Fold:
Amino acid sequence: MFVRKFLLAILLLTSSQVSAADLNISSVEVASMTTAHLCSRLGGVGVDPVITIHHNRVSGQTIRINMFDNVNRRTINHRATTTRSDGSGITRVTYNFLPPCNTTGRSTSNYKFRISSDGNSIIVPWARYDSARRKILQ
Structure:
């Protein structure tokens, strides 16, 4: 009986230590932008981007994803979401960010994602969109 309680206590202690571990993001992949990702005014349908985050095997840690556009020395927010890390070490996120929709006809947008967790943050470029030529630049 004592051995079972001891083993259970060790199991609970180690599992709480694992879940409290810091999340270390090793890489982020974003599927290439296509016309389908663009807003309807640019001929798209606003398909949500798929973001794959590779990290150490920690589950339940908060990951924040923010999409933004740098255009004409301004930053335009395209929404943000939070998710929890998957214990497999791979977390996939699909979220209804505002679709790329630069209709100025004279500037190039630079779409990026900021991925943050445990005070660490990385910025991942997605694509650029040339509104003058109405063309996606990878």
